[in-house]
Write the structure tokens for this entry.
Amino acid sequence: MSRDHRIALTRDGVSLSRLVFGAWRLLDSGGVRPDADQVARLIGSAVDLGLTSFDHADIYGNYEVEAAFGAGLARWKGKRDGIELISKCDIMLASANRPQNRLKHYDTSAAHIAASVDRSLANLRTDYLDLLLLHRPDPLMDADETAAALAGLVKSGKVRAVGVSNFTPSQFDLLASRLPFALATNQIEMSVLRTSALTDGSLDHAQRLGYAPMVWSPLGGGALFTGKEQREARVRAALATVAAETGAGDLATVAIAWLLRHPARLVPVLGSMKPERLAAMAKALEISLDRQQWFAILEASEGRPVA
Ligand SMILES: NC(=O)c1ccc[n+]([C@@H]2O[C@H](COP(=O)([O-])OP(=O)(O)OC[C@H]3O[C@@H](n4cnc5c(N)ncnc54)[C@H](OP(=O)(O)O)[C@@H]3O)[C@@H](O)[C@H]2O)c1
């Protein structure tokens, strides 16, 4: 991935690689927990492909992914300032690792945000996050309190930029109205199987304000390959046609290229833990779908031609 394949998030220099490595499934693979050297090798493979940005959350792997990643990062030979670390907070899981949580809930209080970021920094073995996201909208969010906590983290240098995830445009605007700087992104769900962001105002909002949305589960969490519904079969067939037309070779490559074709400058967060699959998806940066190829995939997803 070249320098051109980066997305500037803020005016003062925070940028991400156009494709981001998502760490959610780091501890999922085949029931065998990767050791620090294996994690270091995976980090190296991602960086070699140009995926310098790594997406985390405090809760990933039942609160255990960040520390496993941090152990790998400590073994990795590269430099901290050559990568970007993203984390999230505010989801509170009912988990043996958090016995005080009686049920799943959200917490955007200043005290929780500060404590969660300190834990993420310790687990990732770093002294700053490039980007902190509020993971999900919290119906009890006090926008003044939350914004003051986020602004304090930026001022202290613990966090370089702040954004949100899964927020509606109006939830985004409320928090933004209390902050002394712009929110850097909204990380939302989108894929060839999940197209609601095209019409629910999310991408219009991003383009109006000029931020680049990050996109999670860009392959539908793998359902694109495993799904047995008619919709998934139709989409696979449409992707195969475009893969042949463009020489892309791989359905995943075309599915990512379909996202990259959108003018809102989507930043897909890739969930595969396999370097060869990440490499296939990185090829999406080299192909460009024409309008009719893009609409053929939309038509397959929605099961009808556009009106
Ligand atoms: N903000 C939020 O609320 C939120 C929610 C969910 C996820 N996320 C972020 O988004 C990231 C990506 O989500 P995701 O894991 O659901 O993404 P995804 O890229 O849609 O799905 C990845 C899954 O698809 C599988 N897969 C099967 N065939 C594949 C192929 N040919 N090529 C590539 N992958 C294939 C992967 O398995 P292999 O590993 O075996 O390749 C992996 O289990 C997460 O890591 C996390 O950082 C954020």
Observations:
- The pocket of NAP is lined by residues 22-25, 55, 135, 165-166, 187, 216-222, 225, 252, 269-274, 277 (CB under 6 Å).
